[in-house]
From TrEMBL:
It comes from Streptomyces bugieae. The keyword Oxidoreductase applies. This is Oxidoreductase. Keywords: Oxidoreductase. InterPro entries: NAD(P)-bd_dom_sf, SDR_fam. Belongs to the short-chain dehydrogenases/reductases (SDR) family.
Length: 314
């Protein structure tokens, strides 16, 4: 993969995309660059005020943008279902691209509206449900892709299938690493099931390396840990790449021609730089774990994937 950048994004005219967490950071940059290349983009955000502000900013930066804000709270499965059920007015029956970007990082222990540990529930289960509910549109759209944003910090921890909700033991960074491992294991299992169904729909993953966004400071800010917040902000200024650089892996996975299913794309050196295929922990490619996580996710969310509408490739 050459030194890929936004100039390599193919024309997206006529294509439709949903980007979760598009109000700031990597999600916003992803939505903006897709719109700049002609895609119709849905900014799916939890906060209405921040989502609408992001839409106004996008339309200022890309005056010809075809974009719309839609409310989506991935920590509330009823919100996920409402979002999926009301998407028709903008994208119709087709959906070319779903970018599962939104997430939370290293929060103190808390639960979602449905009682799941917040990081696992938001970063994985919310996106698992969303992808399943939008799957018929994706399967019906030639050339469609699903891109899930993980992290190199997935390497912190494998999943604990006996304690997915962190009820017996909780560490904020270990829980974050497990949620990001779940993202990669989900992509692996989705790609495997799509291949078995003969579908050309591509499921891939990306990571931003170390990118300066507000994600890193959220947990410290919530707890009033001012010194920790200042240290993180200093690291963002001195070491991290800007959000524009962090979004390159996602944009590459979403638009580069001939992207392989189950790819994991991020900065070439792990922290920053042009996109390349990245290291991933071996447990994120184990079929048995993928099947186990899939079964647990269907049970917890009540969302069951239907691959019967898959159009065989070739």
């Amino acid at each position: 993969m050459t030194r890929w950048n936004t100039r390599h994004i193919p024309d997206q005219t006529g294509r439709s995309a949903v980007v979760t967490g598009a109000n700031s950071g990597i999600g916003y940059i992803t939505a903006r660059e897709l719109a700049r290349r002609g895609a119709r983009v849905v900014l799916a955000c939890r906060s209405a005020s921040r989502g609408k502000a992001a839409l106004d900013r996008l339309r200022t930066e890309v005056p010809a943008a075809k974009a719309e804000f839609r409310p989506l709270d991935l920590a509330d499965l009823s919100s996920v279902r409402d979002f999926a059920a009301t998407l028709d007015g903008f994208t119709g029956d087709r959906l070319d691209l779903l970018v599962n970007n939104a997430g939370v990082m290293a929060l103190p222990y808390r639960t979602t509206a449905d009682g799941f540990e917040m990081q696992f529930g938001t970063n994985h289960l919310g996106h698992f449900a969303l992808t399943g509910l939008l799957l018929p549109r994706l399967l019906a759209t030639p050339g469609a892709r699903v891109v899930s944003v993980s992290s190199m910090l997935h390497a912190l921890a494998d999943l604990d299938f006996d304690d997915l909700n962190g009820e017996r033991s909780y560490g904020r960074w270990i829980a974050y690493g497990r949620s990001k491992s779940a993202n990669l294991l989900f992509v692996h299992e989705l790609a495997r099931r799509l291949a078995a169904a003969g579908s050309p729909l591509v499921a891939a993953a990306s990571h931003p390396g170390y990118a300066a966004t507000n994600l890193q400071t959220a947990g410290a800010r919530m707890e009033g840990r001012n010194s920790a917040e200042r240290v993180i902000e200093l690291g963002n200024r001195l070491i991290a790449q800007p959000a524009e650089g962090g979004a390159l892996g996602t944009l590459c996975a979403a638009t580069a021609p001939h992207m392989r299913p189950d790819s994991f794309v991020g900065p070439r050196n792990g922290l920053r730089g042009a996109p390349a295929q990245s290291f991933r922990a071996p447990w994120t490619k184990q079929d048995a774990n993928g099947e186990r996580l899939w079964a647990a996710s269907e049970q917890l969310t009540g969302v069951h994937y239907d691959f019967s509408a898959a159009h065989p490739s070739g």
